[in-house]
């Protein structure tokens, strides 16, 4: 008889497969190598903006920031007049440990960001302030190192865990040498690199000590531990990671090139210890919130804006899982950080909230049908003791200000101005910007525009906010408004001329002026030939104009620059689709979906290509996925209807006919399609070979559509088949 489920969740901030795989190949991460042989791995897509407190809260809740309420690194204090770090008090929804608490399951939560003050959950919690040794901008001496109130729950663990902390002064030069072989030279020079390694090695060791202590001495069903050291090491030393970049000083490179490698090896060693504590019935998940550029995509300089260091993050983190019933030595595709909590719920046979934005990763199981996925409307509606904070939870203003100081040093927040009220307003606006980006990331572009219009100052505009507004206007087809904000970019000279050309070209393309767009994009490409974005934008124009060889060449170039760009793979697939190279198109669409599963149009065009080679069953699955992801893509239902007619499924045909009847309004009118052409406005059916076979009369979608020569739709004001 199987024991009750136990789950260990290990969070490594900024961990990236490119670094891990390289170290595994070199024999430097043996624990991770064995782990992957015994389980499943995959890339996990992050959210935008890729800021750790927002992302780790999404991992722990399964919802986006606009739902969970953690926005940025700091926030205005609701009591007024000050700024505080985001905290557990800021979260608006239940985290996985709250759900487990009211399900009579015990949790250990160590160092999660943000988790201060600790929550009175069923189990133990150690806050993200636990390992911090700073007071008033200086490191506190070890004999004066107190632990702030609200750091540990329950109180019985306070004294024990306090003594387990490792102070930076306890990390000697010899302990730093695995990270930097010439560490003693650094220490003698009082080099800041030595201090960075000492600090975050102490932090990681403290978190690990607390975690192992609780795992060994507490009864638990779920343990979650969060480590931020890889992220800190990467921000400080990834610029020195092999291979050396041309602009990096050779001597400095030789001195610091092993630092990031050392951080990963240390995490592999900590993982080995955790795996020795558990039994074979425990499921273990390792994940990161985002990746970190370690190759030619590393930026040479960081922008001097709040959260500027986030430019070094890559959009895909790591996901790995092993345990009873989990596939062995296998891969999955299309995972998102939003999927972690729904997946954990399935491991405990608990229902998933329908309000959650993530999905359970059922393809991790040896027998996918062994897990019966259950749903409830929302865990917020379930009563019972969830261990959440009450409204009167105490603050620790001293610890909070120390945390803010560290965020300022790391470049994530700006130093406060002399005018406290002005600083609070600035923080509030910055968080609204992050909220707008989060809405945009979810495809809620109109919401993003509305928020951005609240904060944009026409006299002194922030270029990031205006650019985000222009892009969101284009996505939501508010072209006149987009032009207004583009004019603001021009008038205030907010960005370089080359990036301005790209932005203006996007608007011109939306307004059916492709030739002007091409001129601007070619100008930008002369300056930035290795920009994947510019190559993609120019390729999209050529694709829309049916200049397919030119588009193909540019999409391939974009993939060579950034093989992880799902938009480039999707675009290349569209080129092959139009060239009737259906197998090649299918492979490209699958590559795009593997990189970004939540990509409705990639699934849609995959369905089209599958229909055209007669793979109707798989095409139907692809279109059904589109209908789930984005039911507003109405042409999906037309394809589903056509497929049922082809295969002769009268029941499903009638079902989709009813859906189409709800969409159809009156007669279709002829509208302009590709530049200079007018096409017959009819809905076309395909036979089993993908040839046109009949048409339906008097159909009109609620939006204006025209058709290209294969019978596929494209939207008015958008030259690209979508």
In whole angstroms, how far apart are the ends? 52 Å
- Percent helix, as a range, is 40-55%
Mean pLDDT: 87
Rg (C-alpha, Å): 27 Å
What share of residues are in beta strands? 5-15%
Shape: globular
- Secondary structure tally: strands: 22
- Briefly note the structural class of the backbone: alpha/beta
Number of helices: 28
- Specify the biggest β-sheet: 10 strands, mixed
Q: Give start-end ranges of low-pLDDT stretches.
A: 666-722
Keywords:
disordered C terminus, 46% helix, alpha/beta, 722 residues
Protein architecture, described:
With 722 residues, this protein is of the alpha/beta class. The chain is built from 28 helices and 22 strands. The strands form 7 sheets. Strands 1, 2, 5, 6, 9, 10, 11, 14, 15 and 16 form a 10-stranded mixed beta sheet that branches. The longest helix is centred in the first third of the chain and has 26 residues, at 192-217.
What's this model, at a glance?
This protein has 722 residues and is an alpha/beta fold.
């Amino acid at each position: 008889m199987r024991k009750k489920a136990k789950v260990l969740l290990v969070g490594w901030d900024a961990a990236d497969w490119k670094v891990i795989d390289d170290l595994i190949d070199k024999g430097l991460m043996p624990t991770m190598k064995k782990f992957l042989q015994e389980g499943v791995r995959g890339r996990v897509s992050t959210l935008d903006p890729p800021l750790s407190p927002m992302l780790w809260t999404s991992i722990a809740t399964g919802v986006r920031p606009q739902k969970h309420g953690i926005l940025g690194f700091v926030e205005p204090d609701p009591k007024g007049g000050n700024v505080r770090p985001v905290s557990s008090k800021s979260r608006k929804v239940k985290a996985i440990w709250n759900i487990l608490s009211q399900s009579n399951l015990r949790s250990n939560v160590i160092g999660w960001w943000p988790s201060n003050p600790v929550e009175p959950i069923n189990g133990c919690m150690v806050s993200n302030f636990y390992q911090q040794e700073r007071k008033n901008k200086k490191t506190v001496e070890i004999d004066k190192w107190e632990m702030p109130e609200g750091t540990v729950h329950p109180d019985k663990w306070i004294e024990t865990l306090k003594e387990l902390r490792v102070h930076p002064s306890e990390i000697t030069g010899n302990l730093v040498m695995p990270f930097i072989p010439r560490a003693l030279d650094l220490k003698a020079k009082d080099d800041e690199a030595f201090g960075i390694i000492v600090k975050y090695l102490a932090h990681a060791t403290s978190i690990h000590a607390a975690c192992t202590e609780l795992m060994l001495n507490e009864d638990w069903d779920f343990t979650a531990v969060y480590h931020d050291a890889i992220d800190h090491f990467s921000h400080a030393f990834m610029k020195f990671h092999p291979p050396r970049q041309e602009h990096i000083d050779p001597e400095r490179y030789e001195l610091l090139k092993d630092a990031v490698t050392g951080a990963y090896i240390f995490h592999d060693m900590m993982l080995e210890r955790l795996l020795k504590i558990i039994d074979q019935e425990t499921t273990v998940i390792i994940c990161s919130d985002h990746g970190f550029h370690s190759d030619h995509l590393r930026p040479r300089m960081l922008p001097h804006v709040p959260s500027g260091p986030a430019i070094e993050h890559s959009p895909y983190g790591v996901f790995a899982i092993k345990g009873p019933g989990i596939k062995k030595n296998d891969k999955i595709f299309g995972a998102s950080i939003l999927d972690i909590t729904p997946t954990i719920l399935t491991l405990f046979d608990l229902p998933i909230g329908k309000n959650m934005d993530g999905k359970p990763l059922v393809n991790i199981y040896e027998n996918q049908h062994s897990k019966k996925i259950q749903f409830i409307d929302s865990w917020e509606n379930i009563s019972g003791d969830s261990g959440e904070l009450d409204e009167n939870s105490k603050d620790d203003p001293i610890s909070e200000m120390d945390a803010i100081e560290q965020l300022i040093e790391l470049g994530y927040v700006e130093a406060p101005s002399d005018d406290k009220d002005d600083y609070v307003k600035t923080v509030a606006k910055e968080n609204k910007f992050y909220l707008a980006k989060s809405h945009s990331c979810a495809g809620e572009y109109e919401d993003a525009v509305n928020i951005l219009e609240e904060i944009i100052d026409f006299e002194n505009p922030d270029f990031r906010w205006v650019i985000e507004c222009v892009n969101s206007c284009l996505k939501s087809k508010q072209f006149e408004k987009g032009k207004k904000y583009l004019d603001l970019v021009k008038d205030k000279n907010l960005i370089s001329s080359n990036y301005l050309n790209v932005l203006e070209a996007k608007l011109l393309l939306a307004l059916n002026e492709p030739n002007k767009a091409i001129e601007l994009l070619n100008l930008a490409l002369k300056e930035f030939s290795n920009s994947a974005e510019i190559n993609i934008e120019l390729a999209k124009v050529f694709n829309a104009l049916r200049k397919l060889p030119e588009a193909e060449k540019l999409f391939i170039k974009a993939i060579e620059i950034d093989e992880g760009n799902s938009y480039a793979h999707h675009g290349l697939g569209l080129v092959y689709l139009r060239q009737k190279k259906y197998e090649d198109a299918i492979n490209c669409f699958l590559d795009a979906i593997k990189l970004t599963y939540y990509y409705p149009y990639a699934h849609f065009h995959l369905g089209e290509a599958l229909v055209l080679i007669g793979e109707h069953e798989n095409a139907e699955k692809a279109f059904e996925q589109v209908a789930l992801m984005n039911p507003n893509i109405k042409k999906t239902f037309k394809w589903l209807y056509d497929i049922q007619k082809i295969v002769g499924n009268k029941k499903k045909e009638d079902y989709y006919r009813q859906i189409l009847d709800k969409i159809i309004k009156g007669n279709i009118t002829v509208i302009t399609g590709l530049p200079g052409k007018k096409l017959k406005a009819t809905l076309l059916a395909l036979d089993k070979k993908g040839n046109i076979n009949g048409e339906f009369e008097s159909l009109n979608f609620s939006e204006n559509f025209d058709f290209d020569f294969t019978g596929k739709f494209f939207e008015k004001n958008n030259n690209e088949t979508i």
